[in-house]
Amino acid sequence: MTKTPYNPADDGAEMSFDGRMSYSDYLRLDAILGAQDMLSDAHDEMLFIVQHQTSELWMRLAIHELTAARDLLAEGRMRPAFKMLARVARIFEQLNNAWDVLRTMTPSDYTTFREALGQSSGFQSWQYRLIEFMVGNRNVAMLKPHEHRKDIATLLKAELSRPSLYDTAIAALPQHGFNLPDEVTQRDLSAPYAPNDAVMAAWTTVYENPEDHWELYELAEKLVDFEDYFRRWRFNHVTTVERVIGFKRGTGGTSGTSYLRRMLDVEIFPELWHLRTDL
Prior knowledge:
This protein starts with 22 loop residues before the first helix and ends with a helix. The protein has a domain at 43-125 and 194-278: Methane Monooxygenase Hydroxylase, Chain G, domain 1. It is built from 13 helices and no strands. 59% of the residues lie in helices and 0% in strands.
């Protein structure tokens, strides 16, 4: 006996979208799926483009969440911020998983289209740079690759005038009874953060007495969780690049793997890692 095919309309599913909002309309899929313009005939160029475009979309969401989380922390509303910070960590888990797909591309595959990239490089991702600036890794020299885009350069410079995520977290310490020196509370926000003994002592007290400082304790762990995934992303970036191009210079002119390895030593929330040795 022939079974009648299932028709979703029988259960009330909408099936006609002439002049109405559809899934593709809402997500603007025509624009998104039409953005993979290959510049060569190489099969693996599509993988390379999709990998980086999806990474930029995840970073777009990370920026959205980090912005809201920092605003909430500045208002003293820690608990809603915790959920957003946890989400950012999971976003970087997704970004980490994406390297597994890119690593299926061999050195031979990459050489078939590398020349088409010109001087473009992930080193020039302004969203990645904004995330670094937002969380606290600030280096004004990194504005240079974006000077040709005044709108982006203005956005990045504006970020350097705001307290970073870590500055905002540290600002919560005096609100909970910890004394911090002016060199911390009045520091040049555009400069890289330097570890401070008073900040170290405050966070150490939080970890020694978590039951007395639970919100600060949870905030610290949310930050460490994020940086953990962020470090893994950097490490996976290094190993993927080394696997694909070895020790060649990057397309953007950096030293390639050597440059990326140097970035592995950068600490975003230094006191939160160092205090563990003395607990």
